[in-house]
């Protein structure tokens, strides 16, 4: 599904994710910003897409505020692109899982 302007929403490919969804609900599955299953890399994603996929709670709060305050899709896209240009690298760095998370321990904030 494509919205007017540069905001895009897309479904996960059924041929890749149908079986995975039977093993565990996809909503409770943690995925990296760039999805290896889709052949993505961080470099292949736009700043806007990286922002929308960022795991930082601070980023989510700023994205929500920008969307809430925007009067049009074009204004929202502009605000999100500005946020990404100014803050994405710090939010991505803050969202990197700690060693404990990578070793299989549960992140208290994410479950």
Brief synopsis:
With 111 residues, this protein is mainly alpha-helical.
For this entry, give a set of tags:
111 residues; mainly alpha; 0% strand; globular; disordered N terminus; disordered C terminus
- For the secondary structure, the number of strands is 0
Beta percentage is under 5%
Shape descriptor reads globular
Q: In angstroms, what separates the terminal alpha carbons?
A: 30 Å
What is the mean pLDDT? 79
Secondary structure: helix percent: 40-55%
Helix-strand category = mainly alpha
What sequence of helices (H) and strands (E) makes up the elements? HHHHH
Question: What about the largest sheet?
Answer: none
Instruction: Please give the oligomerization state of what you see.
Output: single chain
- Helix tally? 5
Helix-strand blueprint:
Blueprint: H1 14-23, H2 47-53, H3 57-69, H4 73-95, H5 99-102
Helix pairs in contact: 2-4, 3-4
What would you note in describing this structure?
Mean pLDDT is 79; it is low at 1-5 and 105-111. Helix content is 51%, strand content 0%. The protein has one domain. It contains five helices and no strands. The longest helix is centred in the last third of the chain and has 23 residues, at 73-95. By secondary structure, the protein is mainly alpha-helical.
